[in-house]
Specification:
The chain has one domain (3-190). The protein has six helices and no strands. It has helices at 3-38, 46-69, 78-100, 102-126, 134-156, 162-190. Helix 5 runs antiparallel to helix 6 (162-190). The mean pLDDT is 88.
Length: 191
C-alpha cells in the first residue's frame, strides 16, 4: 500500500468511526421513543408511522454518506446502492403499511431487515481492512434471521413493533462496538 493509499484508508477509517457513533446515537434515541410508542400501540397511529418512516430514511442517508466518504472509487458499490434504494422504498412502504395495521408494518419491517442484512454483510466483508467490521458482519447476519422472524409474525397477524425497537437496539450496540474497535485501531496506528 502506498503512502497516499494508507492516508486515504486512515481517513476513511476515521469517517467510518464517526458514522458509527452517529448511527449509534440516532438508534438509541429512536429506540427509546419507539419503545414508549410501541408499548402503547395496539392500533396504527401517526407517531408510530413517523418513527417507522424515519428509521429506514436515516439508514439510506447513512449509507449515502458512507458511499461518499469511501476513497476507493474503483470498487463496485452495487450492494450499498441497493441498500439505499431498498431503504427508501421501505420508508414509503412502512408509511403506507403502518396506516393499515401493525402486523402489516411488522411484516414490511421484517422483509426490509432481510434485504438490508445481506448487503450490510457483504459491505462489512469488503470493508474489513478498514477495521471494526466484525460487529457489522454479525449485525448483517442477525438482521437476516430477525427479519425472517418479523416477517413470519407479521404474516401470521402477530407480534408488536416493540420487537423492531429491540432489533434496532441490538443494531445500535453493533455500531457502538464497531466505532470503539475503530477507535482502538486508529489509536494504535497513531502511536
Amino acid at each position: 500500500m502506498t503512502t497516499t493509499e494508507n492516508t486515504s484508508a486512515l481517513a476513511y477509517a476515521h469517517k467510518l468511526r464517526t458514522l458509527y457513533f452517529v448511527r449509534f446515537a440516532f438508534a438509541i434515541v429512536w429506540v427509546g421513543i419507539m419503545f414508549a410508542t410501541a408499548a402503547k400501540a395496539t392500533d396504527p397511529n401517526a407517531l408510530l408511522t413517523v418513527l417507522l418512516i424515519v428509521y429506514p430514511a436515516f439508514d439510506a442517508g447513512a449509507v449515502l454518506w458512507q458511499l461518499r466518504a469511501d476513497p476507493d472509487k474503483q470498487r463496485p458499490k452495487v450492494t450499498e446502492w441497493i441498500s439505499v434504494a431498498v431503504s427508501i422504498a421501505v420508508a414509503i412502504a412502512l408509511g403506507i403499511s403502518s396506516s393499515a395495521s401493525i402486523a402489516t408494518a411488522l411484516a414490511v419491517w421484517g422483509a426490509w431487515a432481510i434485504v438490508a442484512g445481506v448487503p450490510q454483510l457483504i459491505t462489512a466483508i469488503r470493508n474489513r481492512r478498514s477495521g471494526g467490521q466484525v460487529a457489522q458482519m454479525l449485525s448483517g447476519g442477525i438482521s437476516v434471521l430477525a427479519g425472517a422472524s418479523f416477517l413470519f409474525q407479521g404474516i401470521q397477524g402477530n407480534g408488536a413493533m416493540a420487537g423492531a425497537a429491540g432489533y434496532a437496539a441490538l443494531g445500535a450496540i453493533f455500531f457502538l462496538v464497531s466505532a470503539i474497535r475503530l477507535s482502538v485501531k486508529l489509536r494504535k496506528r497513531s502511536a
